[in-house]
Amino acid sequence: MQKTESEPVTDNSEPSPPAMEVSLQEAEAKVPFPIRQPVVPFEVTEQSTRILETDGTYDAVELTYGNKEEGTNLILLITNSKADTPPKGRKGQLLANGSPTWDQSNENVSAIYWRYEGLTYALVSGKNNNLEPLYDYATLKEIANTIQ
To answer: CB within 8 A of 5, min separation 6: which ones?
Structure first.
């Protein structure tokens, strides 16, 4: 099996396990890493937390912050996956903690990706049910810098 930059490494022997919605407290108890949250720049009216299990351990958490009236959302995905896939997108600037970033935005959402202290982060924002981007790269970088 050849590894290419355009395709992530996957194991097709089993289907991917579904994400399980839990409370933030349950997620903090199950994942083996600290869950650091961003400062969300809009009023959050809905929040959800999902965890993903791989090989009997929880190695990913997805935090979604939304405002139903405004149709906006911000999603933070944190994983300690050992998959060493190259980042996609345009190389961006360094975060305050020295982590290099990649701009992964497209016509539907705005997104930034980085790795820090053994964890991989993706911060995604959208509006109108993710039919258009909410923030630009510079704003997402500012939000990423609030994660302590």
So the answer is: 86, 88
